[in-house]
Amino acid sequence: MATSTWQRSSYCAQGEACIHVAAHDDTINVMESSDPNGAILHTTPAAWAALIRTVKESAHHD
Asked: According to the lineage, what is the superkingdom (predicted)?
């Protein structure tokens, strides 16, 4: 597997409470920063875009 370039979320809390995201081929990879050797979630770009869109829409309803 090729090395992914991880991008830190711009919505990180203090300390280690953060997620990192990397695009690799046709997959979006997501991991928790406090456990970089732990599980990596894999999803499609379409599913990731739908999640981000839903989160952004939900933020406007607070």
From this structure: Bacteria
